[in-house]
UniProtKB/TrEMBL annotation:
Keywords from the named record: Disulfide bond, Glycosidase, Hydrolase, Signal
Region (Disordered): 600-619
GO molecular function terms attached to this record: hydrolase activity
Protein name according to UniProt: Glycoside hydrolase family 2
Entry annotated with the keyword ATP-binding: no
Annotated organism of origin: Kribbella karoonensis
Family annotation (Gene3D superfamilies): 2.60.120.200, Galactose-binding domain-like, Glycosidases, Immunoglobulins
One Pfam family cited in the UniProt record for this chain: Glyco_hydro_2
Family stated for the protein in its record: Belongs to the glycosyl hydrolase 2 family.
Domain LamG-like jellyroll fold: 675-808
InterPro entries for this protein: Beta-gal/glucu_dom_sf, ConA-like_dom_sf, Galactose-bd-like_sf, GH, GH2_Domain-Containing, Glyco_hydro_2_N, Ig-like_fold, Ig-like_GH2
Domain of life of the native organism: Bacteria
UniProt KW Iron-sulfur keyword: no
SUPFAM superfamilies hit by this protein: (Trans)glycosidases, beta-Galactosidase/glucuronidase domain, Concanavalin A-like lectins/glucanases, Galactose-binding domain-like
Length: 818
């Protein structure tokens, strides 16, 4: 009976692999850092595991191990029948220490021979390449059998017609990788690391190479899609060879059959699984599958696979905000940024245990999600995410950061859709992310079209069209996809959902710590460096507490902390780059992470209660600014600073300011900026140009908590937070009095601006309003730690309220002339 490898048996598949032989002219390189698995790698055990967990056959041969290698000249003929002088350990990229070369070449040759087992006679022979970066050509016995472009997707070749009847078979591979000399998708790779956010590239063969025998008619790809509401698993077995064949699919819970269906090959079949066990991070249950290809009652091919039953979607919480959901329930996606680089193997993990390690640490730390950042991993990485229970946001690898020209746009889109096609059946993947921070983006409308095309290709998952749409090279929000995603360092982001899109923090954090003897360059940086592990842990816990606040108050339903490990010069990991040193107190990390997952549930709990505030038309403080030196309400003195003087105001006297350092200091923090508040003033500007001028603000540690202002950038009145402005629609006139009022509503997460009693702008501005302890001031602001935006004009009748005034109250205040 033909044996099928189930998901549970995959780890043991290494027993099927023949050992390569070490030779005295090869040795492993010396990386700046080694991992706990570096010494486990040798020519006899280079990634021996079965590489394709979702379509398994028992009869196969691993071609990893020592290959001959040499640099290649442009347009050079293949070295058919010629021994190459150097050795390389496949599948480690040539720049890596584990390859034994530790060098870069734009073009290269690989060569080896192999024997076809006698028992495979009469079968078709398939060669499988997990990935070759970037362009590849393949020859078998002097016959060119394939070309392929794309560094992150695999390709298969039927080489039967090129085989000799007996004896050794010659296999030659040419690879070209120009990395950032072109616009090919490269993710974070660069030919030369910048010691910052871009890393040493990986060239050539970097995933497992293997071969297997198949019948003339065989299963070439298996696509599975769970339909949880219908208790059905959709299964499509794509086949090669003659048509008219049938497929039988059987699902097992351990060894118990729970469902079976039969139908035509290469069509979508409905496999009913009554009362299915659902897959989730807490209970990552997987069904084993056996799929048989049948020709007139005879089984001609049989493969093993697995699948999880789960549903990904969006759902409104009790607070009315749209959130990400799994299996019909809101579940906060708590993730790290996982870049997938290794100091010994670069793009390739040294061993399968190492590949699994990073994912296991996510579970240990209390995360339920991984953002696989602009890299595509080998299939076994996704298998471990499926098995361990981690949701995956899968990024498409970016090209260089500037806009891609044609024909690279077409190539990039082709590779994007191939990535989706190759990974549609992995249960763990819940979100596709085409663009990151605008890298390579060329047109906002087409970004939306790309997101739509991915959603059409795979409607079973969510699409995050553009992670970090607020950042960097972004062309702005296309409005497409299921998610709106902001990045904020140190953050977290306070993105707000829309009627049809959930909101997430796609990147935040980045707190760093130097660990001597465990740094790639002997030094490095982070968004904020800390002096010791205790401080780093405290900063993380405080930052994650704000993630929970953002989830409860603003409605984010996912967050991505940067990052699981250090990478080269980036020192902001939970682990050092070599995975040897944990940098935080993991018990505290897990505790705060669990609080987020348990309490970011859309229930409305944690939304601030600002209270009713103090009634009355004059508010908690009213400054007539008439020269008396004392306000009418609140008994606080106002001090005129830097030579400011009283002069003719809107109602009696006002304060005349010269725009060059003069302002009014109230001497105290008059507003609780964690709650609702309103600030109002009569203002007359001497000039309306490109300079910012602030009327009322309250100092924070670095920036003002709010700015009631004239925005020089927009040349309009505004009620603002840093980077967020509720803007009036028209430019004011110099020398004219205006009544300007700004309202902060923390429950609705809004800033409102009124001019002359009329509401002119409302801006969604959910923010983790912090208690500003600096003084409330008139006529300037604070930004970046400095006093800025001095008013050139006259201000009068300043009111401060500890509540959000209504439209009617603002209009009445304006009409009163006060």
């Amino acid at each position: 009976m033909l044996k099928i490898l189930t998901a549970a048996a995959l780890v043991a598949s290494a027993l099927l692999v023949p050992s390569a032989q070490a030779t005295p002219d090869w040795h492993v390189g010396t990386p700046p850092l080694t991992t706990p698995w570096t010494a486990d790698v040798s020519p006899t055990n280079a990634l021996p595991e079965y590489p394709r967990p979702q379509l398994t056959r028992p009869d196969w041969r691993n071609l990893n191990g020592l290959w001959e290698w040499s640099a290649a000249a442009p347009n050079e003929a293949p070295p058919i029948g010629r021994t190459l002088q150097e050795k390389v350990l496949v599948p480690y990229p040539i720049e890596s220490a584990l390859s034994g070369l530790q060098m870069h070449e734009d073009r290269m040759w690989y060569r080896r021979t192999f024997d076809v087992p006698a028992g495979w006679k009469g079968k078709q022979l398939l060669l499988h390449f997990g990935a070759v970066d970037y362009d590849a050509k393949v020859w078998v016995n002097g016959v060119q059998v394939a070309t392929h472009r794309g560094g992150y997707d695999g390709f298969d070749i039927d080489v039967t017609s090129a085989l000799h009847a007996k004896g050794p078979q010659e296999l030659i591979v040419w690879a070209e990788d120009l990395t950032d000399e072109t616009y090919q998708p490269i993710g974070k790779q660069r030919e030369v690391s910048d010691h910052g956010i871009f890393y040493q590239g990986s060239s050539g063969i970097w995933r497992t190479v293997w071969m297997e025998p198949v019948s003339t008619a065989s299963i070439s790809r298996l696509q599975t899609t769970p339909d949880l509401p219908d208790q059905t698993l959709k299964v499509k077995a794509e086949t090669t060879g003659p048509g008219g064949l049938d497929v039988e699919v059987t699902a097992y819970d351990n060894n118990r059959i729970v469902g079976k269906t039969t139908g035509p090959a290469s069509t979508e079949l409905q496999l009913r699984i009554p009362n299915p066990k659902t897959w989730s991070p807490d209970h990552p249950f997987l069904y084993d599958l056996k799929v048989r290809l049948i020709d007139r009652g005879k089984v001609v091919d049989q493969v093993g696979s697995y699948a999880g039953m789960r549903q990904v979607g969006l759902q409104k919480g009790a607070d009315g905000k749209l959130r990400m959901a799994l299996n019909g329930k809101i579940l906060f996606n708590l993730a790290t940024l996982d870049q997938g680089f290794w100091p010994d193997g670069l793009n390739t993990a040294p061993t399968d245990a190492a590949l699994r390690f990073d994912l296991e640490q996510h579970k240990r730390l209390g995360f339920n999600t991984v953002r696989k950042h602009i890299k595509v991993e080998p299939d076994r990485w996704y298998y471990w995410a499926d098995k361990l229970g981690l949701m995956v946001w899968q990024d498409m690898p970016a090209s260089k950061t500037d806009a891609m020209p044609e024909p690279w746009r077409t190539q990039w889109k082709s590779e994007l859709h191939e990535m989706v096609e190759e990974h549609k059946s992995f249960t763990s993947i819940t979100v596709w992310v085409p663009f990151n921070e605008g890298w390579g983006e060329w047109d906002r409308t087409e970004t939306g079209q790309v997101a739509d095309s991915v959603a059409a290709q795979d409607p079973s998952r969510l699409v995050d069209a553009h992670s970090g749409v607020n950042c960097c090279n972004s062309h702005g929000d296309s409005g497409r996809g299921n998610i709106i995603d902001y990045h904020a360092y140190l953050g977290p982001a306070t993105t707000t959902p829309t009627a049809d899109r959930a909101a997430v923090d796609g990147e935040h954090g980045g707190f760093g710590l130097k660990v001597p003897d465990h740094m790639w360059f002997g030094d490095g940086s982070a968004y904020e460096m800390e002096p010791d592990s205790a401080t780093l842990t405290r900063k993380y816990v405080e930052n994650q507490a704000n993630v929970l606040r953002s989830a409860q108050q603003c409605g984010i339903s996912g967050s991505v902390y940067t990052q699981i490990t250090d990478v080269e010069g980036e020192l902001n990991g939970f682990f050092t780059y070599d995975r040897r040193v944990p940098k935080m107190d993991f018990a505290q990390v897990r505790t705060i992470n669990k609080q987020i997952v348990d309490n970011a549930d859309g229930s409305g709990a944690g939304v601030p209660d600002p209270g009713p505030g103090t009634p009355g038309a004059d508010g908690i403080h009213f400054y007539p600014l008439d020269g008396s030196g004392e306000d009418a309400v609140g008994n606080n003195d106002a001090t005129l600073e830097q030579g400011a003087v009283y002069g003719e105001g809107k109602n009696g006297q006002g304060v005349v300011l010269n725009g060059a350092g003069q302002y009014v200091d109230t001497g105290a923090a008059l507003l609780d900026t964690t709650k609702n508040y309103t600030a109002s003033a009569w203002v007359k500007l001497n000039k309306v140009d490109g300079a910012f001028q602030t009327f009322v603000s309250q100092d924070g540690d670095r920036d003002s908590a709010f700015f009631l202002q004239y925005s020089g950038q927009d040349q309009r009145f505004a009620m603002s937070f840093p980077g967020i402005r509720a803007l009036a629609p028209t430019k004011p006139n110099p020398g004219q009095w205006y009544h300007v009022t700004g309202v902060r509503d923390v429950v609705k997460g809004e800033l409102k601006l009124y001019v002359d009693g009329q509401l002119v702008a409302t801006k969604s501005a959910c923010s983790l309003d912090s208690g500003s302890t600096g003084n409330t001031v008139v006529g300037r602001a604070k930004f970046g730690g400095s006093q800025v935006d001095f008013l050139d004009g006259t201000v009068d009748q300043v009111h401060l309220y500890d509540r959000a005034l209504t439209d009617a109250e603002v209009d009445a205040l304006y009409r009163s002339g006060r």
